[in-house]
Amino acid sequence: MTWGHLVHIAYGIPLTLALTGGAFFVGAVLGFPIMLLRESSFMPLKVAMIAIIAFIRALPPILWVFLLYFGIGTGLINLSPFVAAVAAFGIIAAVNMAEIYRGGMVSISAGQWEAAHALNLSRLSIWRDVMAPQMVRVALPPSATYVIGLMKDSAIASTIGVAELAYRGKQVSQMSFEGLLPFTVVGACYIALSLPVAWLSRTAERKLRAKVAR
Amino acid sequence: MDILDSLLMGVTWADVQSWLPGFWNGFIISLEVTAASLALGIPMGFLLALGVQSRRKVLRLASLALVEIGRGAPALVLLQLVYFGLPSAGLSLSAFLAAVVAISWNTGAYTSEIIRAGLDAVPAGQREASHALGLSALDELRFVILPQGLRIAVPALMGFAILVFQGTSLCFAIALPEIVSRAYDIGSMYFYYFPALAVAGLFFAAVCIPASFLVGWIEHRAGAYARR
């Protein structure tokens, strides 16, 4: 393995980050309405959402990636590998984020709802000013853990040819006829990338908690 | 129906039926990898959980390194490291063995954290009481801490077992003929990608949906016990 190989692997980092960021964005946005539908008081809707969430979580990520890229990609609409991967991980992230949001919402005591109603706050105001700030605090640590998990899952995109870290690691191992070092470097890259996320989450959590304690 | 037609590409029931034996064999391979990885990984996780709390520095650092790499690196990269990497260190493993080694490592790293959390959740008074009763360190672990700590860890371990089964799908990358590889092969041979992948999905759904509801129920019951 040469410096050139190392640089070749490093060029995969932006794509890994883009995959992770893109999928997390899709998941964080879609997760909220999914959570609301799942918590709906209209029973058939609630049951349908529980079934859909269970189904999406039951299939392994690689299968979702293949279904979107090969399954839909060859028959229906042609998706680029990157778009297919972001869409697949985005769908999975959406149901997982919905569960994380739900955990945040369940943790808010009923008294908060009652107090907000008693103060005659509008629906928008209840969500924006009362619920959201409290939910964020509870949902932040599991979300950060999830982002790190998502980044590791994004390695699966290498199987459909997205030239991110894992893909380039395999390329280098084939070019250099070495196995141990390239994959170790790639593994170390993932660990190194997850450290700032973990640090950021801890810092943010501390700050948010300090705000409440005041 | 146009959309469905273009997804199914004119596949017939006879086609699907002819795939089923292959899928079944793939399913058995996935189950075997899961069982072997859990059988090796959970005891390994237990040893690592004790290792990271060890007073011996070498042991502690070695355990910590195994846990952090096993958890921090993607399972796919671990698989490739073991399958493509170890041969250059003079150790060639079959795809099946490589899968078991890599997924056990991954399992050991994750379950060590689950088990450690379980052991930590045993109230401190239990340890103090063991000391007061003059139990040896081994007896304290064996009769007091483990029975309580492991009971706390069981629901999380079962939840992780489902993830291990799903994780066997990554063995596609090392050409182990499990469920997803079978679907991919059918897809690339006859171009029936969507139908073949959908059948593969049904295998996972049939196992994981009931299993995750079961785990949810057990978690709920365990929680009820703690609340009481």
Automatic annotation (TrEMBL), chain A:
<keyword id="KW-1133">Transmembrane helix</keyword>
<comment type="similarity">
    <text>Belongs to the binding-protein-dependent transport system permease family. HisMQ subfamily.</text>
</comment>
<keyword id="KW-0813">Transport</keyword>
<keyword id="KW-1003">Cell membrane</keyword>
<dbReference type="InterPro" id="IPR035906">
    <property type="entry name" value="MetI-like_sf"/>
</dbReference>
<dbReference type="Pfam" id="PF00528">
    <property type="entry name" value="BPD_transp_1"/>
</dbReference>
<dbReference type="InterPro" id="IPR010065">
    <property type="entry name" value="AA_ABC_transptr_permease_3TM"/>
</dbReference>
<feature type="transmembrane region" description="Helical">
    <location>
        <begin position="76"/>
        <end position="95"/>
    </location>
</feature>
<keyword id="KW-0812">Transmembrane</keyword>
<dbReference type="InterPro" id="IPR043429">
    <property type="entry name" value="ArtM/GltK/GlnP/TcyL/YhdX-like"/>
</dbReference>
<feature type="domain" description="ABC transmembrane type-1">
    <location>
        <begin position="13"/>
        <end position="201"/>
    </location>
</feature>
<feature type="transmembrane region" description="Helical">
    <location>
        <begin position="180"/>
        <end position="199"/>
    </location>
</feature>
<protein>
    <submittedName>
        <fullName>Amino acid ABC transporter permease</fullName>
    </submittedName>
</protein>
<feature type="transmembrane region" description="Helical">
    <location>
        <begin position="12"/>
        <end position="35"/>
    </location>
</feature>
<keyword id="KW-0029">Amino-acid transport</keyword>
<feature type="transmembrane region" description="Helical">
    <location>
        <begin position="47"/>
        <end position="70"/>
    </location>
</feature>
<keyword id="KW-0472">Membrane</keyword>
<dbReference type="InterPro" id="IPR000515">
    <property type="entry name" value="MetI-like"/>
</dbReference>
Automatic annotation (TrEMBL), chain B:
<feature type="transmembrane region" description="Helical">
    <location>
        <begin position="196"/>
        <end position="218"/>
    </location>
</feature>
<protein>
    <submittedName>
        <fullName>Amino acid ABC transporter permease</fullName>
    </submittedName>
</protein>
<feature type="transmembrane region" description="Helical">
    <location>
        <begin position="89"/>
        <end position="107"/>
    </location>
</feature>
<keyword id="KW-0813">Transport</keyword>
<dbReference type="InterPro" id="IPR000515">
    <property type="entry name" value="MetI-like"/>
</dbReference>
<keyword id="KW-1133">Transmembrane helix</keyword>
<keyword id="KW-0472">Membrane</keyword>
<dbReference type="InterPro" id="IPR043429">
    <property type="entry name" value="ArtM/GltK/GlnP/TcyL/YhdX-like"/>
</dbReference>
<comment type="similarity">
    <text>Belongs to the binding-protein-dependent transport system permease family. HisMQ subfamily.</text>
</comment>
<feature type="transmembrane region" description="Helical">
    <location>
        <begin position="27"/>
        <end position="49"/>
    </location>
</feature>
<feature type="transmembrane region" description="Helical">
    <location>
        <begin position="61"/>
        <end position="83"/>
    </location>
</feature>
<dbReference type="Pfam" id="PF00528">
    <property type="entry name" value="BPD_transp_1"/>
</dbReference>
<feature type="domain" description="ABC transmembrane type-1">
    <location>
        <begin position="23"/>
        <end position="215"/>
    </location>
</feature>
<keyword id="KW-0812">Transmembrane</keyword>
<keyword id="KW-0029">Amino-acid transport</keyword>
<dbReference type="InterPro" id="IPR010065">
    <property type="entry name" value="AA_ABC_transptr_permease_3TM"/>
</dbReference>
<feature type="transmembrane region" description="Helical">
    <location>
        <begin position="152"/>
        <end position="176"/>
    </location>
</feature>
<dbReference type="InterPro" id="IPR035906">
    <property type="entry name" value="MetI-like_sf"/>
</dbReference>
<keyword id="KW-1003">Cell membrane</keyword>
